[in-house]
């Protein structure tokens, strides 16, 4: 048996994450991926990038310190290969490239700026394909802080995919107009109208948290009815109560509401009654992509 270590760094609009995975190889057996370490730092880059167009000096300093810490954690964990990706907040900031260069200079971490299409490709490297059954239709939704990726699967294949600037941090800062919601509505209806029954597959920190809060076992779906009731319940609580009574992190207690709204609207417009929540996402996709690229 051989245990290898790979790492993924996801620089999102709401938080920065380091995921270290053990990759267990054993002759004659399927490769096993298990989480070794997960570190999440609540640096909300989107609040800078989407409102004033650049990342503040304070947040730039926090990113650099985080990357230095990540570099040390990868070193002591003996990570053999890593990949770091930054999404919409860093991409849209006027000083994004400047910060990326500074991170490389000070922390030695090389960061790749990716768009929605590349993000969807990386996520496709996860176990997503194993969930897709050929006789069913699916709407896959990955909710982020700056944007949300939507992909329609039909007959086991990707029918179409699109990224919308409809992220939780943008919604919190009232930066999403009715026109964007209308475009999403039209797109979903156009691409799901020919399916009698469709199921949503959701990913992202918020839907994972909602699934955990529901008390359902791994693999059990959320219903539209439950999600709608939970949305109303969360809205009835103050931000402070969501932290003290529900135990939500300070940077989760606000974004969870707009994230839930995105899933509810998508379910309403597509006619989906079920939301599956597998443990997949950008970080998992990076690990799988690194491993399968590296392994013949």
Summarize the main sheet: 6 strands, mixed
User: Termini distance?
Assistant: 18 Å
Name the helix and strand elements from N-terminus to C-terminus, one letter apiece. Answer: EEEHHEHHEHHEEEHHEHEHHHEH
Low-confidence regions: none
> How are strands sequenced across the largest beta sheet?
8-7-6-9-11-10
Tally of separate helices: 13
Q: Bin the strand percentage.
A: 15-25%
Sheet/helix structural class: alpha/beta
Mass-distribution shape: globular
The level of helicity is 40-55%
What's the overall average pLDDT, rounded? 93
Beta-strand segment tally: 11
Compute the gyration radius: what is it?
Answer: 19 Å
How would you characterize the overall build of this protein?
With 296 residues, the protein is an alpha/beta fold. The chain has 13 helices and eleven strands. Helices cover 45% and strands 24% of the residues. The mean pLDDT is 93. It is globular, with a radius of gyration of 19 Å.
Compact summary:
This protein is of the alpha/beta class and 296 residues long. The chain contains 13 helices and 11 strands. The longest helix is centred in the first third of the chain and has 20 residues, at 57-76.
Keywords:
alpha/beta, 5-stranded mixed sheet, 45% helix
SSE order and pairing:
Layout: E1 2-11, E2 16-25, E3 32-41, H1 45-52, H2 57-76, E4 81-86, H3 88-92, H4 96-107, E5 111-113, H5 116-123, H6 128-131, E6 137-143, E7 148-154, E8 157-164, H7 168-172, H8 178-192, E9 198-203, H9 205-214, E10 222-223, H10 224-236, H11 239-244, H12 256-270, E11 274-276, H13 282-294
Parallel strand pairs: 1-4, 4-5, 6-9, 9-11
Antiparallel strand pairs: 1-2, 2-3, 6-7, 7-8, 10-11
Helix pairs in contact: 2-4, 5-13, 8-12, 10-12
């Amino acid at each position: 048996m051989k245990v290898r270590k790979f790492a993924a760094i996801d620089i999102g609009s709401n938080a920065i994450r380091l995921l270290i995975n053990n990759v267990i190889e054993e002759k004659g057996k399927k490769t096993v991926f298990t989480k070794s370490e997960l570190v999440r730092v609540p640096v909300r880059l989107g609040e800078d990038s989407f409102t004033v167009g650049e990342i503040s000096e304070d947040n730039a300093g926090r990113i650099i310190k985080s990357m230095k810490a990540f570099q040390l954690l990868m070193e002591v964990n003996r990570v053999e290969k890593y990949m770091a990706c930054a999404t919409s907040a860093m991409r849209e900031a006027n000083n994004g490239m400047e910060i990326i260069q500074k991170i490389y200079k000070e922390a030695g971490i090389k960061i790749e700026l990716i768009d929605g299409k590349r993000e969807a490709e990386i996520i496709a490297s996860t176990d997503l394909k194993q969930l897709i059954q050929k006789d069913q239709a699916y709407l896959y939704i990955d909710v982020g802080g700056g944007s949300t990726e939507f992909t329609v699967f039909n007959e086991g294949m990707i029918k179409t995919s699109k990224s919308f600037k409809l992220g939780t941090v943008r919604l919190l800062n009232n930066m999403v107009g009715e026109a964007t919601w209308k475009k999403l509505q039209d797109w979903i209806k156009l691409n799901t109208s020919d399916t009698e029954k469709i199921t949503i597959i959701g990913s992202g920190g918020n839907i994972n948290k909602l699934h955990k809060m529901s008390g359902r076992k791994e693999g059990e779906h959320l219903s539209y009815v439950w999600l709608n009731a939970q949305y109303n319940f969360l809205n009835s609580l103050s931000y402070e109560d969501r932290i003290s009574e529900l135990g939500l992190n300070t940077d989760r207690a606000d974004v969870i509401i707009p994230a839930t709204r995105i899933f509810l609207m998508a379910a309403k417009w597509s006619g989906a009654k079920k939301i599956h929540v597998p443990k997949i996402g950008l970080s998992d996709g990076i690990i799988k992509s690194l491993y399968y690229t590296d392994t013949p």
